[in-house]
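Hi there, hope your week has been kind to you so far. Please have a think about how the structure follows from the sequence. I've dropped the whole record in just underneath, so have a look:

_____
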Amino acid sequence: MIEEKIFAGHKTCYGCGVACKKNAEVKDGPFKMEKGPGPEYETIATFGCMCLNSSIESIAKANEICNRNGMDTITCGSTIAFAIECFENGLITEKDTDGIRLTWGNSEAIVKMTEKIARREGFGAVLAQGSLKAAEHIGGNAADFLTTVKGLEAPMHDPRSAHGYGLAYAISPRGACHEASLTFEAEGGTIFIPEIPELSSDLPEGSEGRAELNVAAQDYGMFFSNCAVFCNLGGMPLNATQAINLVNYVTGFDYTLEEVLAAGRRLWYLKRGLTNLFGARAKDDRLPRRLMTVLEEGPTEGSVPDMDRMLAEFYELRDFDSDGVPTKKVLDQVGLPDLAALLHQS
């Protein structure tokens, strides 16, 4: 469908063998758009699958609107899908949505609401705050339709199929994000780091070993993705030795694996501690009801993450107190005494 209807050639970063970027163009019709960056997987899933929308042209148009207005397509598409479910369940009507029939598969309505969100116009101003704030505005049982953690809409990788994702979403400083660490890549099998046992082990299905996986993926991921800024797609073939060597060759430094893991660990605790300073606590390290609902059919039939087990194991490994705050002892150990003083003033 993409090749036939919107594909307008490949465009990728210099020398990359993955070539994930594609151009799109819609030459005529209600969703006409100039040649430009096309929708990728997350965008197609949110504006398409989640909205039961089969029009790839409308998805490309919504993607263009988001790109031109600096909007995240996961959040925008998920928020519109949330609004559609509210509409279908009678929580909002056309009176609320400025006359737009927000029904499943209504591609024109999806694009119109994307435009309204971009302009913060009418009901678009409500949805522009994200689905969590919109649920508070709508009321009733709107919260039952949320996929958010700490206010951020979950990406298109279901934690019922890979339980480590569930833990990663729950304890991420910014909420349900698949790129806040390397858990997504490690559990998904796209990276293999033989120098780090937790990132090269063959884990059984379920929740076993996911706390250890997340800790390792965070510590190494802070170096790999956040500090060295390797692309998580283009950098997939690299093991830790190769990645560190590349950084050393470019910078003239002489980092070791132990040093980058220590730096990554310190950075992760800094992020977590700042999140705690802004008010996040253990109660926020949870998945929404929608993502913890047991499915009765399909490849994830009967599977939900054992969040209580994984969180308990993770808190112990990270030396958190029962409220989800790193202890003063561990913050001092990783070289963050000022943060420790702020979090433990008493």
Summary: The mean pLDDT is 96. The chain has two domains: 2-146, 157-343. The CA atoms of residues 197 and 216 lie 9 Å apart.
